[in-house]
């Protein structure tokens, strides 16, 4: 087996949301680093997904296929889906014939299915990275034919075919995510170093129900003097929340900051949704969390993600149906005052001590698979 294959070629198919795209970027970057920047890597996505909006910052060429899912409501748009499927398979075949990848990596989203399905039909090695405890439909359909399925949560294994070649790795995040400097972060956000910081995090688009719950909590005066907020409202809600929170919130409101290294290192406790990559980043940064799962996630996977995180003692869950009756900030401060936050942080540190990052495990295994693929390719 080739330890460090030369002229490695990879295609990554995943997107639609950041939860599918960012793991792909993290893995691609690590593979590239381990191969001294000499691997040829390309991404495949759709014009509808976040990958297209971020195409100039992904760092790799982006090719497009036209595919989308079936709408749950009755609509004439569903009549076009079979034609989109056929077209996306043909487009995927064209892309794969041109790029000649040794390995195709799928990280979820609708675009994963046609690309990896065609790759399997062409005899190309495929691998999957599944972020959630309840695997997405693309993963469930493609797992049996994949050389490897990297799982973010062990719970995901029970939903896949018994012959799937699964590996429990955790979810891949940027290796630098926990490298922020706290002093620099506090200065950057204008925060008080003598106060505990509660980070409210709803993703780049924010979480309206969480924002409303925090506003309600602020009106009750629950934010004590020794505490401050670092509050990512999301771009859509920023102006509205800023106006309503005027004079009530100590700390900083901001729509979205791409420098998450600084955001995380400034925090002592996080109030957040339970997206798989968010949880992986919190774990890497040793951050306890109050998790409020998004109740409409496919397969209720955010609730399952949260349960897995909480079961390890890393946080607690607030039922989204209880937001009207729970004083979020009062509950968060209680976790500080009764020592729970410190205990949670200790448990995360203990469990993760000395553990190899998921992105390293996955990248190293993919490189082994590239070596095997090259050995099987005559005249490569």
Write the layout of secondary structure elements.
Blueprint: E1 9-14, H1 18-34, E2 40-45, H2 50-53, E3 62-64, H3 81-99, E4 103-108, H4 112-121, E5 125-130, H5 137-142, E6 148-151, E7 166-168, H6 182-189, E8 196-201, H7 208-219, E9 227-232, H8 238-244, E10 251-254, H9 260-265, E11 269-272, H10 276-284, E12 289-291, H11 301-311, E13 315-317, H12 328-337, H13 340-352, H14 358-376
Structure write-up:
The chain is of the alpha/beta class and 380 residues long. Helix content is 40%, strand content 16%. It contains 14 helices and 13 strands. The strands form 2 sheets. It has a 7-stranded parallel sheet, sandwiched between helices. Strands 10-9-8-11-12-13 form a 6-stranded parallel sheet, sandwiched between helices. Helix 1 packs across helix 14 (358-376) and helix 3 (81-99) crosses helix 4. The longest helix is centred in the first third of the chain and has 19 residues, at 81-99. The chain is elongated and about 65 Å long. The mean pLDDT is 91.
């Amino acid at each position: 087996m080739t330890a460090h294959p030369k002229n490695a070629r990879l295609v990554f198919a995943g997107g639609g949301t950041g939860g599918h795209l960012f793991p792909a970027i993290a893995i691609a970057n690590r593979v590239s680093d381990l191969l001294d920047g000499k691997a040829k890597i390309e991404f495949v996505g759709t014009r509808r997904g976040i990958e297209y909006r971020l195409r100039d910052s992904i760092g790799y060429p982006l090719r497009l296929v036209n595919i989308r899912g079936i709408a749950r409501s009755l609509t004439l748009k569903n009549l076009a889906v079979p034609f989109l499927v056929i077209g996306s398979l043909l487009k995927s075949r064209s892309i794969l014939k041109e790029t000649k990848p040794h390995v195709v990596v799928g990280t979820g989203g609708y675009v994963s299915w046609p690309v990896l399905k065609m790759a399997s039909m062409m005899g190309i090695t495929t691998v999957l990275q599944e972020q959630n405890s309840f695997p997405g439909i693309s993963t469930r359909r493609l797992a049996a034919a994949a050389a490897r399925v990297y799982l973010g949560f062990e719970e995901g294994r029970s939903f896949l075919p018994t012959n799937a070649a699964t590996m429990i790795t955790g979810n891949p995040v940027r290796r630098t995510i926990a490298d922020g400097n706290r002093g620099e972060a506090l200065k950057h956000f204008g925060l008080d170093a003598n106060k505990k910081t509660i980070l409210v995090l709803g993703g780049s688009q924010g979480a309206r129900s969480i924002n409303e719950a925090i506003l309600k909590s602020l009106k009750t005066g629950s934010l004590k003097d020794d505490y401050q907020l670092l509050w990512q409202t999301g771009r859509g809600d920023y102006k509205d929340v800023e106006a309503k929170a005027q004079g009530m919130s100590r700390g900083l409101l901001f729509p979205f900051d791409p420098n998450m290294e600084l955001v995380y290192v400034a925090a002592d406790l996080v109030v957040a949704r339970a997206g798989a990559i968010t949880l992986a980043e919190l774990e890497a940064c040793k951050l306890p969390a109050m998790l409020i799962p998004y109740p409409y996630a496919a397969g209720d996977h955010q609730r399952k993600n949260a349960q897995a995180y909480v079961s390890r003692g890393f946080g607690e869950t607030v039922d989204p149906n209880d937001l009207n009756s729970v004083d979020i900030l009062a509950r968060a401060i209680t976790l500080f005052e009764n020592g729970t936050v410190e205990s949670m942080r200790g448990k995360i540190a203990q469990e993760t001590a000395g553990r190899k990052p998921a992105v390293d495990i996955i990248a190293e295994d993919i490189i082994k698979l590239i070596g095997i693929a090259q050995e099987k390719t005559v005249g490569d």
